[in-house]
């Protein structure tokens, strides 16, 4: 009888260590974050009074917060869309490559093997207005030197370009795996029907890749919202908050100015924004599943 009970409860017993870790490192921190977002919480203060929704009211009246919303939206939309377009192009090219495919893939994947702090530091040196390699080549081609990271017009595009350089290979490898999984039959049918290369790509390849595309967009969208390391190494949110994203002002308010309660409120709003976007993407994936079944 005891063995029968153990057999029935075995799966639940195996889950207990994982549930304990989930509670310690995910659920409890989130509940603590939610709690202090309603407090005037500071590590240097003796009292941590409950202030209700004051942090959230102040948040929506804060010009820096709305600026961070705008910068984050520009950054996420630009990086994810361009990484998808370039990554898809590279995936299609590599899928057609028959000689040296593994070597080319290995070379393209080098950026994602590097830490974001290293990439940020490398691009900061490359974009230096005095000794940066980009200005060196700019002068060779007759252009003047540019202070890429301290110029209001170029700082955010420089950050976007850095992210694209590092994470396009990630998008490419997911899409390439999807292309490898498409059978030859749809392409043979399209060839028999006399479809052009563009028609085959648009009406055969893209529909077959639809679920993979949304998964790739989902993963990169999550990661784009979390950018911090590269900003810290390259611009530190400047100049004049032109590269200050939501994740950056969480650090700025919470750890630089020790306004933990206010920083927690920003985290809660960021979480709501990300969860809403991810829910919409997941609904798209479910929609494609329903269409395929029908």
Automatic annotation (TrEMBL):
- Which family does this protein fall into? Belongs to the binding-protein-dependent transport system permease family.
Where do transmembrane segments lie in this chain?
Answer: 12-34, 73-94, 106-127, 154-179, 200-219, 260-282
Asked if the record carries the keyword Hydrolase, the reply is no
By its UniProt entry, which Gene3D superfamilies does this protein fall under?
Answer: MetI-like (1.10.3720.10)
Report the membrane topology from the UniProt record.
Multi-pass membrane protein
**Any idea where the ABC transmembrane type-1 domain is?**
69-283
Which named protein is this? Sugar ABC transporter permease
* Pfam families given in the database record: BPD_transp_1
Which subcellular locations apply to this protein? Cell membrane
Q: InterPro entries from the xrefs? A: MetI-like, MetI-like_sf
Instruction: Tell me the keywords, alphabetical order.
Output: Cell membrane, Membrane, Transmembrane, Transmembrane helix, Transport
């Amino acid at each position: 009888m005891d063995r029968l009970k153990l057999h029935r409860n075995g799966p639940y017993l195996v889950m207990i260590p994982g549930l304990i870790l989930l509670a310690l490192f995910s659920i409890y921190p989130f509940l603590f974050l939610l709690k202090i977002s309603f407090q005037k919480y500071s590590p240097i203060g003796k009292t941590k009074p409950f202030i209700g929704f004051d942090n959230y009211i102040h948040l929506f009246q804060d010009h820096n917060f709305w600026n961070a919303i705008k910068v984050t939206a520009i950054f996420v939309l630009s990086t994810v869309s361009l990484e998808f377009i370039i990554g898809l192009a590279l995936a299609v090219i590599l899928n057609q490559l028959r000689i040296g495919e593994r070597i080319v893939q290995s070379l393209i994947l080098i950026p994602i093997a590097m830490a974001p702090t290293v990439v940020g530091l490398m691009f900061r040196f490359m974009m230096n207005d005095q000794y940066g390699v980009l200005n060196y080549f700019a002068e060779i081609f007759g252009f003047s030197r540019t202070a890429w990271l301290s110029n209001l017009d170029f700082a955010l595009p420089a950050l976007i370009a850095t992210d694209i350089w590092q994470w396009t290979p990630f998008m490419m490898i997911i899409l390439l795996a999807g292309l490898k999984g498409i059978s030859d039959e749809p392409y043979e049918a399209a060839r028999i029907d006399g479809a052009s290369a563009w028609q085959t790509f648009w009406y055969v390849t893209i529909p077959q890749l639809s679920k993979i595309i949304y998964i790739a967009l989902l993963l990169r969208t999550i990661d784009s919202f979390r950018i911090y390391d590269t900003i810290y190494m390259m611009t530190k949110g400047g100049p004049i908050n032109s590269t200050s994203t939501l994740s950056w002002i969480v650090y700025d308010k919470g750890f630089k100015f020790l306004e933990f309660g206010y920083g927690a409120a920003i985290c809660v709003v960021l979480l709501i924004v990300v969860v809403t976007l991810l829910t919409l993407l997941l609904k798209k994936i479910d929609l494609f599943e329903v269409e395929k079944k029908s």
